[in-house]
Queue: 4 jobs
Job 1
Amino acid sequence: MTDICPNEKAIVQGETWRITVLTSSLIRLEYSSVGQFTDQATQMVANRNFITSTFRVDESDSLVVIVTETLRLTYNKKAFSSTGLKIDVCGNNSAYSAVWHYGDEPKDLGGTARTLDVADGAIDLEYGILSKEGWSILSDKASMLMADDGFITERSDPTAEDLYFFGYGRDYITCLKDFYKLTGSVPLLPRYALGNWWSRYYRYTQKSYLELMDRFIKENIPFTVSVIDMDWHITDVDPKYGTGWTGYTWNKDLFPNPKLFLQELKNRGLKTTLNVHPADGVRGFEDCYKAFAEFMNVDTINEDPVTFQPANRKFMEGYFNLVHHPLEDEGVDFWWIDWQQGNNCGVEGLDPLWMLNHFHYLDNCRNGNRGLIFSRYAGPGSHRYPVGFSGDTIVSWKSLDFQPYFTATASNIGYGWWSHDIGGHMCGTKDDEMALRWLQFGTFSPILRLHSTNSEFNSKEPWQYNLIVENIMKDFLRLRHKLIPYTYTMNRRANVDGEPILEPMYYYHPTIEDAYNVPNQYYFGSELIACPITTPINRQTGQACFSAWLPNGTWIDFFTGMVYEGGRRLDLYRSLDTIPILAKAGGIVPMDKRDSGNKYDNPDTLEIRVFGGENGTFSLWEDDGKESTYNEQHWAETKINFVWGNNAKLIINSPNGNIDVLPQSRAYKICIYGLSSNVNTMVTSDGIFLDNIKTNYHNKNSFLEIDIPNMPIDSTITITLNNATLSDNQVISRIFDFLNFAQIEFNTKTQIMSVIRELDNNRSTSWILSQLVSMSLNSEILGVLTEILTAY
């Protein structure tokens, strides 16, 4: 274990108290009546060895004052109290000041929650570390310590206070980065985890499950992870053993050849996770019982159970070596730890869920693998054990409407890799539109996993819905898979730079109040803003509305190519086949261009979407996926630069780093959105003009498509766009297309179009709008027209 202790110069200490200045904005506060302090790592804290900040100490017999660049701490050297310990937040990281007294409850922006089990809409969240008030507090008092052998041990003084004060003002990004430095970085996910996951609580057979996977392949619906719920194991057990909820023995009636079954899934490009409910331990009917019971010195003659003891070193050794590893030898890749039995494991203050998450994750990394588990959240520091399973939600619009906010806000406690039961889990009502909107949100969420409860009527295959919804679902599942080059780059960003893939709008706009008033809107990686639709469409418009706020600048719709002026609130309307996903001008989004299959390796064909209007740059990061922790020697970086102007240029530079992880050659489909149609194109490779280039301008969505054949991977490709200008949004044709499908009177459509066509006569937008308002149109109809007319 590395030295986690802070520099001694960072510590100010008395007999019963210790204050550690970790940064100018992060302070550790300890009080122990017996003078025993903690230097070891804890369940929450992995490192206290920060670069020492400059601070001043003024101390007398009864008072100590510590002043950093941003904080002023005043303490009376007694047991912590509201009158004896306070911290003022000031400095240049905020336009205001704030004060904390010991015992004050944080007024933060929220964190996350252990589970969404049986949630039907919003639930209360636990604390996060970010606050408009400028400060927040995390208590580490209840954490166990990490012993030198990697197991847990109790504190020498369990009554001691151990607090971390975060006083970063509204510098949210720095606060989060320091939180990761304190508690540990977010691990790299395996690349396959960023594809689509198939899951269903259902009594499949080996034959029926493989037939389903084959149908997905036939219909070109790519999945990369196969989630097998609890019916993989024996569930019908003799009542003398209890229930069949916990199990580790394959049900051979359903899966007669488990090893072959798992190999067949691998042959189809799928990784596999099995569901486990560990609470009942290992009982006499299990295949692994005899070996485990003998290992634990349990009476096998009377079939005494091997009870679940996560705080017992020997139990955990056998739990992995004798129970899980044999199943992994058959082909299981990682485990779905479905713990629902509370937080009591026989040791006061020790959460069995944390123990399961911690040791399952470490065990999954044991052979140098990149680790992965699938489990519920167990408190601050749980980001070290991805991926999160949010639990069994109710199928309802309210549940859907809460999840975008819930997912983005989890980043406020560093928890960036939630996976939800997309479409909802149980109860509720079948609603094709709601299921589609949930899937569209899932496409732009950390992990896309379809799941449902054990009902013959509740399943998430696209063909279970009407034909329109089915086809759109398929498109979004394919899109999610195509986004892997982008999301994998964001996976690296989360690990190396401490920036989660989903970030609330206020991260980058902390002083703008509107950024706090769009809870369901968030950044999806560095290039995109997502606005998931979570309410039903209006019957007349055929569209649903998202009330958005766009930051200053120019923004372009990822799907439609519509150009928007930012710096304002506006309503965005979308039909069933799309949701508002907005790219910043100059944004660059690399995607997998392979048109079929579920391969997730570094592709030999890329689609690169570029959004006009500003300069932009993007580094595409790719590796071999073999190392469990980040090692730059395994990575290749391809820098993509976009220079906007009358003679715009897109440059795909020769990659740097380990190019052996890349294919030898690569073809490209370049799509430049928000571009007018009168552009001329020239393409060179290493300065040599290419004359076999196909281009196609898509008038409806205002983008230029450029197809570049295979080029050596170390080529530098330059695309020059002469006469490049932003699209005028083709307002008249867009409004005609909208009206053509609107469910309103034909005469009203004609009257509206007669007004809109006055744009050809140089009528102003304000004139057009005034005429439309005077027609007393339905508010939703007027809303759609207003969006198109005033977008840019």
Note: Residues 313-330 form the longest helix (18 residues).
Job 2
Amino acid sequence: MDKTYYMIGNAHLDPVWQWRWTEGYAETKATFRSALDRMNEYKDFVFVCAAAAIYEWIEECVPSMFEEIKHRVNEGRWIIVGGWWVQPDCNIPSGESFVRHGLYSQNYFNNKFGVTSKVGYNVDSFGHNQMLPQILKKSGMDYYVFMRPGEHEKHFSTNIFKWLAPDGSNVLAFRLNNAYCLNFKNTDEMQKMINDSDKGHDDKYDETMIFYGVGNHGGGPTIKNINSIKEMQEKYGADKFLFSNPETFFKKIIEKGYDIETLNDDLQHHASGCYAACSLIKTLNRRCETSLIAAEKYSVFANVIAGKSYPLEKFGTAWKNTLFNQFHDSLGGCSIEEVYDDAALFANEALSIAAKAENSALQTISWQIDTMTREEYPVIIFNPHSWDIETDIVINKQCAGVLDTDGNAVAAQHVHSPTESCTWRKDTLFRASIPAMGYTTYYMSGDSKAVENTLRAENLTLENKYLKITFEGHTGYIREMFDKETNSAFLDGNGAVPIVIDEFEHDTWSHARNFFTKKIARFGDAKIEYLENGPVRATVKVTSKYNGSVLTQYFMLGAEDKFLTVKAEIDWHEKHKMLKLCYPANVTAPEAIYEIPYGNIKRPCDGEEESGQQWMMVRGKDCGMALINDNKYSFSIENNTLMLTVVRSPIYGDHGGPRTSESVFTDQGAHDFRYIVMPCEADMQYNKVIKLAQVFNTPPAHIIENRHQGRLAQVYSGMKVKQGSVIVSAVKAAENSNGYVVRAYETDGTDTCAAIDLPLFNVTIETCFGAYEIKTFYIDAGSYREILMTEMGI
């Protein structure tokens, strides 16, 4: 026996999958009890377990068992790994969500057990974005254990490597070459499983890890597992089969001084279909993330300038709900239907907390603003972003005109209101400018302003002073998207083409099938209507059909916009099919760029289904095109064509089992989504796309106020970043002290220095960022310092 085998006793415990969370809760109790019993029976047995969420379950329902676990942790035989709330999907959550996994979990482990995890641990997640090494490192974790993609999905020359993030951060990673829970019942089975595992490991390493136990529905190491290991110890020596843990293994690898290879890439692809499966959970995830981040900023704002208390504990509850829903089988859309009923409850609680916190903060601030300078009624508009924005605002009031703070009339327009059939009034749309991390005041006027209307929506055309968009009458597709400034066409063929793809041969995960290429039909038989015609916005409504499904798209062009905004509704009734919206960009030598958490990555233009976040882009030698979305995570780019995956409809949790007349299909019925088509220059900086995407996903908030005196000015800005490629992504109260936390990141992949001016805190942060670097700062009493993402050591 040449190698030393580090035997990692664990119980891969899915809190949900083919069962609901209540069953996962019960199984956690049984699994932890079993592990503790094995420790009583075998004095050298070691148990490894991740996911702070399930520890919290035990703490709240079986406190005596929790005390036993504390003792075993202190003894060094119960090893906490992972450092995250659950083992999440590692592509869909935002960068800030990954930070919060570490923040809440590492603090929980430290507060309850006096330890933090040094090992990132996601053995069943389906892919891993390349920003993770930096986030892990800055959350106190130096190592990473994963299993997917397997060798048949992505070849590595070694299963032990330094995994490199774009900023240069790295963690020492280990890919399991076999299952995360080998359940051998005797030494013969154990030997065979070890031999199979050895086939994929680099021979230069004398050590490897073997993960054993009963998993998925919990269970953990069995008596037969442990007895088999002890028999192998007697046969080959106790030093060849060690009851151990990943951190000890990694330290041994470093100690022996191996020449460890470096991997500069993301870890894909395993289950490409999961990024479009179950639209509801994806929509709820995006809404929870953006709502909580905005509510935290507004709550800090109100705390500092108005003395309002910050709801720290409530935000913690909301984030933990959001993080729990990010479990890889939940967010990946591959659980049973009932899991998503429960997920909606958790998400809606989080959204309720965010909405109440935001409203309370904004109402507190708006009431202290002096609005008596004019006779008209005020509208206070708030910007949570770290840059000044100019965007369209809709208020649920019908007024003849709108004035800015200085009393100047701005263009306004009446648009359809959801309450119109009840109140007989329309909403008012106008263009507003709002300072960074601040607010401004507009006034509802009884007088209208005559303005030049540069918009046109008629005769299959939608046009402003920058763009001219032409539709094809019988299909509703965009025939041309023309740049009037450069006299150039952005499309290479019809755009907004809804293509139906057959995926009968795909399961829910789309195992071993990363391309969706069997195109069988297009939506057509279009009806085109002209709904709005300026002066602020023009809108063309296109309704098209396929079988019993109906797609409605509202193509909206603002007077000052150099992009096209689309609000869409799909009433979907197809089974084993996928819908993609296609835009062929007029580019040569195309390259594909996808947003990933706190970064972006280039991938081949080969049509493979890819995960992404708020935007993707294809660009060539002369120009490019970006697609921005508000709730989608699955895309493909084939040559020069961007394809947004709208919906797919496999059977819930189809893992190759029988398909019957009782099978329930995902995503049947109505869904809403929005997207932006953004033409761009070939050398456009990413931050311009990112900022538009973030405002699209987190628009300004507003309060329709009364006239009253107040101590606050009508306009205020709490932040100014003097570098376009640096964005402040989070502003919150610190978890363990009275100060505040500000997080910022570099967007464009270039080393840069920035000054983050924060009059809100009476401080200016001056610092330099590496390419795609994320930095976290603690602010207190007019001073600042850089800290870990976990906020420890403040």
Note: The longest strand covers residues 669-681.
Job 3
Amino acid sequence: MPKRIKDGFLSLISNRLFLFFLAAILLFSILVVRLFKLQIIDGEEYLDNFVLKTKKTITTQGSRGNIYDVNGKLLAYNKLAYTVVMESSDKFAELAEENKTTESYERNKMIYNLIKLLETNGDEIVNDFPIVLTKKGKLKYTVDGNSLTRFLKDVYSITSIESLEKDQQEKGQKLLESSAEETFQFLRTGEGGLTETSMFDISDEYSMEDTLKIMAVRYNVYMNRYSQTNPVTIANDVSEESLIAIEENPDAYPGVSVTTDSLRVYNNSKYFSHIIGYTGVISTDEMDEMNEGKSEDDAGYYDSTDVIGKSGIEQEMEKYLRGTKGKQEVYVNNLGKILQVASSTEASAGNNVSLSIDSDLQKYCYDLLERRIAGIILTKLTSASDGGSEKLIPINDVYFALIDNNVVDIDSLNADSASAHEKSVYSDYVDKRTNIISRIRNQLEDGDKQRNLSDEMQEYTSFIYDMLADAGILNTNLINTSDETYLDWKNDRISLEKFLRYAINKEWIDIAQLDLSSAYYDTEEMYDALVEYITGELENQADFDKLLYKYMIKSGELSGRDVCLLLYDQGVLNSKKDDDYTLLKTSQLSSYEFMQRKIRSLEITPAQLALDPCSGSIVITDSDTGAVKALVSYPSYDNNKLANGIDSDYFASLMEDETRPMYNRATQQKTAPGSTYKPLVAVAALEEGIVDPYTIIDAQGIFTEVTPSPRCWIYPSHHGKINIQQAIGVSCNYFFYEVGYRMGQKNGEYNSARGLEVLTKYAEMFGFDRKSGIELPESTPSISDTDSVRSAIGQGTNSYTPSQISRYLTALASEGNLYNLSILKDVTNADGEVIKSYEPELIEKLSVSDSTWNAVKNGMYQVVYGKNSSIDHLFKPLKTLKIAGKTGTAQENTKRANHALFISYGPYEDPEITVTTVIPFGYTSSYAAETARDVYKYYFDLLTDEEKEDKDALYPTSGTVSND
């Protein structure tokens, strides 16, 4: 080093200023190193190994409160389970760049692999996506109405038609009318929307089934795109095998993790599902409604991933059952793993709800109702081909019911895994289909008049008409219903061919949907294209397939034995545990006797058959308080399969079930009350002075004061001279016709409207102008507004739910206490403290004289024990327990059996409970009365040991026909 530089350097060292400068450089270096180790930029930190650490907020859910019965028995609770969740990840961009693909491709590939992993371990994704693939390979929506519109608005990002630019409004409206196929293609490719977008960009290398599963996951992530704190649930209650596979391979499943979550569980679900309902992820509409007036900082604010009550008590008591959310401020790495918890606020549990329902009573009544309905079916079963005037149930109808209600899956008959027997049945079906479609083509080319066709061919041609109308090819809105040719078709005077040719000329046919070979075509070409459409489309129609099977059974081409054996082929029945299988297969047991045995043992239930009768309800109240002790609706469903993410296959099966198992018969199914209405009419007649307890009316068999003249049920006989108590006891229609007639009389002239005013006054007094008060969805009651004579026997347009009839009955039993019924007992917090109690509200104490109550209640006693009672023998097993009741048989469809009703209370002298039993299309009210009798035997501990053990169908008492 030159001396000049060396001297200068030494001089600097000796300078204090330099030392200070050097210290500053060293300090700055330390700070630089520190910043490399932990540099905060926009809330993100870089660690010494340069791994990104991001600060985020995690919301923790408070556990939902439990639901108990009146005695503290647990009905709904939560269990901890492994849940697979997904959130955004930058890894897909890296993979796309590395593999020269797209982010969507990599994301779809990962989701597909995740689905296959889960399915291999027996787990399933949460799939409530409202598009499914039918067994015919067609796409269809599982929702309709407002739910479908909301879904389509979300898919196509349409807030409202009015919010769109004017030049896009027409297209926007068409998008909201998109078919399932069109919506599927848009989500898969992004083509066809308002703007060009890639959407999910799902490759066609995946099968339709797998594409729908990928789409379901992508759609849920898409709907959660604005939430930065809540991952999307992919699968619930997964196995340890899935847990380990995901946690050990984080690079294979970026953005995916397994958490411990709380899942909703329902004990003995089928008995309580209509009452309790189920939970599910909140929808956009629900979130908007529940968050109205709230800010995101409010404790009760709902996020897009929150679970809420969707129906029943879960929905009604949402604000009490819902837990309070907690929050965690955490730091995570680029794989989403939590590295540090910065702060935490604990979540808290929701409140518990107790019902007034006695779960043991509820379960007994449900099972009893099923056994009684099965017994009615067995009593009405016939080997004849026709039910006749008695509306018996032909055995061929039972065989077909197994196919019609999807107990036997006809679409699986040709599967690779199908048995030889299944494939043989399918082969016979193919032959039948080929033959029938050929005959249909002939009919369309040179058709005979509809009235000249066989019943079978008439049903096929009627099916074609409905099929074209449903598809919109035949625009029924354009049809002039007074058109002569149309009327000829409706009255079977012309062929389907002639009608369709005429419809083309009248431009009732939308030719845009037909496959026409050129832009220039004549009428004949249009008709030929229509014929090709019809014959081609019939092969895709599941209901047409069922029609073919129906007539295969009728003709003997498909035997009852073959149908019964399909039950074993498809696992409905277990051949390894059933001696009847060998007997049936070797023809040692006839298919008729086989079905009798299976219905009797409830291996085949009324709900599966979906024949009349297949449904019913029982409502039991405390006659002193109006508290509901049992609210039974048969058939039912498993709400466990709808909570925690809907099982789409199960939900689809519920939607296709002919019995509508999600429909609450107790609160939603309305029927005419029939003769159960007569006690109300008796109160009206006595209180208005139309008659007194001693007034005698000479009851003839037919009432001739009005035309057409209604008859008493006893006609051509008659009841003769009776008073009002006796009239109730024998359910004399003539007596009450006369009462309804007198109500409409003034100055010797009859006016039905005047009579209806009186009847309406007392119907309203007994609460029939409003819902029952039960905290569940309920149909609106209908007080009759026509024909005071027939309305006086519970016909006319009277129409009420069992719950509404039960409220009226409770008022009768308590001599005038009109309650708003309730199924709630109380709400308690996590420490067991009662924070809200529920008691049925006493709306009104009816102002009715003691003499009227005595007359009416004595008449109801005579229904059960009078010398002319038709059901007194049914109640002898009650021994010293005496009840009062009223039978009711209501006809609403001449082609189907009558509804069976029975209302009652007991004990007679000091009532404890009321029992309302309704069996739609149950033939005769004695069947409902016998069911109620068994309820009293259970409730008052009068069942024999043998009865307690018996689980088979209960045959009605032989020869029982009630006075109605």
Note: The chain has a mean pLDDT of 91.
Job 4
Amino acid sequence: MKKAKSYQEVIGETIEQMRLEKGWTQGELAEATGTSQSAIHRIEKGGQNISLEMVKKLSEALGNQILSINDSVSQSFRIRGGKELSGEITINTSKNAAVALLMAALLNSGRTVLHKVARIEEVFRIIEVLESIGVKCHWQNRHRDLEIISPRELKLENMDVEAARKTRSVIMMLGPLLHRYKKFELPYAGGCSLGVRTIEPHLKALESFGVKVDAQCKSGFYEVEVNQHTLKKYEDRYIVLVERGDTVTENVLMAAALSPGRTTIVGASPNYMVQDMCFFLEKLGVKISGIGTTTLTVRGRSAIDMDVEYNLSEDPIEAMSFIAAAYATHSKITLRRAPIEFLEIELEILKSMNARFKKSEEYLSNNGRTRLVDLTILKSDLVAPVDKIHPMPFPGLNIDNLPFFSVIAAVAEGRTMIHDWVFENRAIYTTELANLNVKVELLDAHRLYVEGPTNWRPAELVAPQALRPAVVVLIGMLAAPGTSILRNVYSINRGYQDFAVRLRHLGADIVPLTGI
């Protein structure tokens, strides 16, 4: 059995990674902390006990929190806003694709390597779940690539329920597991009052594979039973999705991947993470036509046992986050490797608001499929759009990108209506911007007006639990002159890797409040 790493080794690896990301040598870190290079070397190799005082010095020198005994929910950011950003940033790979492909790796009995996986809380929670049931997950190449090896038999009874309940993504285990077990349970993440409605599209879509789920949450688990006769009828399946959802489409794709014969999915999501799923499954030998459309035809395999490597595509939502930060702070920045196919509608709407930007010639992502550009955001005097801003399924404005238009509208001259028709309560989170002196008028749970330009003021706030609204508040604090505090930022860490560090790279004055 492999020996578990000591706390000194784990902390040492963390320090080394942060140092390399900052581009420092061991000698430069030693000088910044008033110690010797040999001491830094011993610390990074886990060969030296490290005091809390030294942890604090290293955290301050590296500009990031190394250790917190408190739960990550209690982490906070201090932002001194009102500063222009500048420079360039490279867009990370997709968080949503990483989550989906971690689940899809369960289809493969061989070795799977995913390149440049986002090191975020959501991914960490799923890895904890996978490791608890016997899947081997190993970070490689200075923690940038992830190797996944699924055992012949999973130990579902050992599942880390606490980690599973922190991510709704656990529902995507339905697709891979239905081929392994006649009966199994998955922990329910969230309140039972939304259980049946939340997963109803999944249940309806997977009926064709013999899946029956008790989602009444009486036990706190989804109780799954798979009719083997229906599952093993390798006839053509024709599935119409009642909801064009990303995770629903991914679940059906994974179910179809290990089902010989033809599965046609009508009403499929063609969104970026679904396309990544399709590209990955193709590398596993699954035949898929219609990628990027709402009708997918899948020819599955009876078994998958191969060594495969896959490069995830870049994250359009992260790209939109930096676009919003640039316009909100009246800055010029360049985004390298922006997935233009999934930003085109957003950029057209911004053009209607007088936004200025430049695009490079297109080139391909490392997966050989996704179209990228380098995008330079220019200082712009924005005006409110004539029409309301609302999301639509791809190729419309991405649902996850809609919240960023509220903070952009806050610096635009005039009144902008934002219609968030998809989520029941997300529009309400936008009213948090009023604490930064943004004029927000909530019409109902789905519609609101934002009037600009804003005479920003700083504030101390608790981050919304929803990921994108939390980032919107953070961007507003970047725009507000003075010192703001954003508390309980786990929701941001759940979906963004080193967001504060990367904003500092662009000149933002943002630091985590370190406290042990």
Note: Residues 122 and 494 are 5 Å apart (CA to CA).
